[in-house]
Amino acid sequence: MRKKIVTGNWKMNHDLAQTEMFLVDLKKQVLPEEVTVMIAPAFTNLNHAFNSLREHPVTVAAQNMHQNNNGAFTGEVSAEMLKSLGVETVIIGHSERRAQFNETNEILSEKVKTAIANKMTVIFCVGEELEERKQNNHLKLIESQLTEGVFQQPETAWKNIVIAYEPVWAIGTGETATPQQAQEMHQHIRTVIANKYSKSTANDVSILYGGSVKPNNASEIFNQPDVDGGLIGGASLEVESFMKIVNAF
Ligand code: PGA
């Protein structure tokens, strides 16, 4: 059975004091048992968030990591460093990393390899630009992102891989994919995984949708048969809107 997951991707938002305020409020909330709830604060707040949520069923994830375990990579953070804090989940391949930090499929595949070797859970992001959708190239493009980024992994690694489909044109724009567009792509992703590995692996992988998910549209998206939750940016920064999304299944 695949998991329902809602992950808040805070991006470069919330300093230490704001993180603390969020956590105090979050810990007062009753969480639905069947949903895995995660937050991904900035690196600087991971230690605090992890310790604060130690007795709490919310998972703390990192937004990125380097593909090497250590070395001369000024400004970077490794899987081993994350694990030393207790952080065992990492988002890899967010479209902002791909577009603004030149993370190619090749680099992302290295990152996935390192994360899996360190027994971490990977939330691997894929998504097309508007132009690619207009040219009706979106299904193929996502297939190649999967093939080049995660299909080097053995089938056994897939118990620790989550896919997040985030159409780039829907991120931070207020424009969401329709539930039908999300379902079409999620079903496609599952089929591609089934063809590469097996039906059972494809059935068990959680596929999250991301891109302007808000309290007022989360339900109709999460209700699609192949959508198992969301990767939430803007609406994850306030506990109230985040909780509405967590409860939208
Ligand atoms: P958004 O961001 O919800 O603000 O569109 C989603 C994401 O980038 O993960």
Measured between the Cα atoms of the first and last residue, the distance is: 16 Å
Helix content: 25-40%
Order of helices and strands: EHEHEHEHHEHHEHHEHEH
**Count of DSSP helices?**
11
* Helical/strand content category: alpha/beta
- The total strand number stands at 8
Strand order of the largest sheet: 1-2-3-4-5-6-7-8
Radius of gyration from CA coordinates: 17 Å
Query: Which ions and ligands are bound to the chains?
Result: 2-phosphoglycolic acid
Unreliable segments of 5+ consecutive residues: none
Compact overview of the structure:
The protein is α/β, with parallel strands linked by helices.
How would you describe what is shown here?
It is a single chain. This protein has 249 residues and is α/β, with parallel strands linked by helices. It has 11 helices and 8 strands. The chain has helices at residues 16-26, 46-52, 79-85, 95-100, 105-117, 130-134, 138-149, 179-196, 199-204, 218-222, 239-246, and strands at residues 4-9, 35-40, 58-62, 89-92, 121-126, 161-165, 207-210, 229-232. An 8-stranded parallel barrel has the order 1-2-3-4-5-6-7-8, surrounded by 5 helices. Helix 10 links the parallel strand 7 and strand 8 (229-232). It is globular. It starts with a strand and ends with a helix.
